[in-house]
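Aim 2 progress update. The chain analyzed this quarter is reproduced below.
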Amino acid sequence: MRNDITFPSLFLFFPAMATSKLQFYIAVYFWILLPFTTSTNKSLKQFTYNGFQQAKLHFDGGATIHKNGLLQLTNTSKQIKAHAFDPIPLEFSSPSSLSFSTTFAFAMYPEIQAVSGHGIVFVLAPTMKFSLATAGQYYGLFNASTIGNSSNHVFAVELDTLQNLEFEDIDSNHVGIDLDNLRSIKSVSAAYFSDSEKRNKSLNLISAKPMQIWIDYDDIAMEVTVTLAPLSLPRPSKPLLSSRVNLSKVVLDNMYVGLASSTGPSASSHYVLGWSFSQGRKIQAQALDLSKLPSLPRFGNKKRKLNTISIIMVILTSAMLIAIGLGFYLRWKKKFEEFLEDWEQEYILQRFSYKHLYKATKGFKDKEILGVGGFGKVYKGKLPSTKVEVVVKRVSHSSGQGMKEFVAEIVCMARLRHRNLVQLLGYCRRKSELFLVYDYMPNGSLDKHLYVDETTTNLSWSDRFKIIKDVASALVYLHEEWEQVVVHRDVKPSNILLDAEMSARLGDFGLARLYDHGSNPQTTNVVGTVGYLAPELIRRGKASAITDVYSFGVTVLEVACGRSPVSIDNNGREWNLIDFVYDCWMKGVIVEASDSRLRGNYVMDKMELVLKLGMVCCHPRPEARPTMKQVMHFLDEDVTLPQMIPYGNSKSEFSSSVDYTLPSFPPSSGDISTSYSSDSVLVFGR
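Predicted structure tokens:
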């Protein structure tokens, strides 16, 4: 046997045989440092997918793989979520392992031009299971309860195509960096740096054109950089977005890397063509091979070239089919006929077909009715295409609600977005009939839970306190946080709906009226419900944000006491809830007004706070009532409710006395004056 080991290579196996310092150091590297480096790199993850035919990824929700290897996250279904995760977790146990580099190619196809679902999110998370997360603005990663919790340990980069005021989005076409929340720590409108023109050029994320994104994190500099460009161009020399992030305070030792997406009332088809990821310092993700990426489906109605004979045949065949089916079509049209006017083209809101709503409500059967009011009937339904449960409000011919009011509601309500408001999903028009489609709340209205039984209750004190805070939060948004002042005018338990998690959402089944900027919102008739109407509203017929505070105060007392505002006792006499609480307050035992079915299972201090706060909100003098923002401060215990004693010697003095006053409210950050003045007011109610 030949011995092929030469002298220069022999010292690599036996350092003692090295004849120089250089040979000795090389031998030490191969004997000691090289094995350590190799074993360390084994734990760092790398993968590249030029198409996803053989991808070893975990998919759920709407995620599917096309035959050509194209990954489709979402489709035109409403309110769906989708995830694509690498099933083997990343190990972030050492500082050097925190660095990573990734790139993926994508395209977003809106169902309707310029109307989009939600976008795509690159995410690092401690789990791949998001069964409790919701679609829509939460991207299938969070829900109303978990959003913003530091225990989420989620890092994300969002490609967002809808502006959500709840998360302070800058626009409906931006890139943002998120930590445990969807309120981005930094965001910028979608664009890319053109190296040839030496300037940033804007990109439309829902243009249906393929694009590529690069995301890099350097653990030494603690910096995230995000770069964007059309797929046909190389990576720009300058990133679009960068931000300092200490990822070691966010991630855990084991994290999953993936992509998430969702749709809401509007939908988009979101595609991913390829994806590459590398972990470790100064290791760039492998470049995608554009020649191997799968092709995208055709977007829109592109005209096909037809020769003259084909065109003639198509025309003749179409004419024959039209002649044969004309009679059937006319009969069908009369049943499902709809109207589309010019003004409807201006508004970005889902329009449902009458046929779909007819099927969803089983032909508007009486057994699907949830409620009946002066406006018409409300039905429960299930959309045939997505199986999503909805509520359909059918406005009757004799309701007196005109087209102007209907237009105001569908335009304005569609733009209101808050976790404690019932979301308007879309509308439908057929002849003179009007339909509005809302989210379905599986736990129904609050009043049904308050009065389910005379001796027992399924609402605990913690449930009730949370419901009160939820409604207060919704009114703060309507009164102070939206671009206009929205006056609800009918705050009461039957208009407070409970979702699957027993979170309260303020809803309304009346039609809206919109006042232009600079106008004085005078109403010509008193609307609302007896027992919840503020005294000045009855006298002057003028609704304002402070009259909503009165209705909220009555509702607070009703929730805490489990009694209606006005009722008739066994002797035929009228019984008033405010008078009852006032009597208990005068006797120094205000907590005895609480719901007896709770049997004392409540926090004494909080019950006293709620009852006194409800009474303050019901003060007969408008200027003595707090704003809803001040109410939230009291409920959050940021500000202590002043110690106070009811003025006068009888309940009638509380009900009518003009001398009754309360201590002034302590100033707090961000509070506004109790005298509401605004440029514009949107008024709800029947």
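Residues 446-683 form a domain with the Transferase(Phosphotransferase); domain 1 fold (CATH 1.10.510.10). The two ends are 102 Å apart (CA to CA). These observations will guide the mutagenesis experiments scheduled for the next reporting period.
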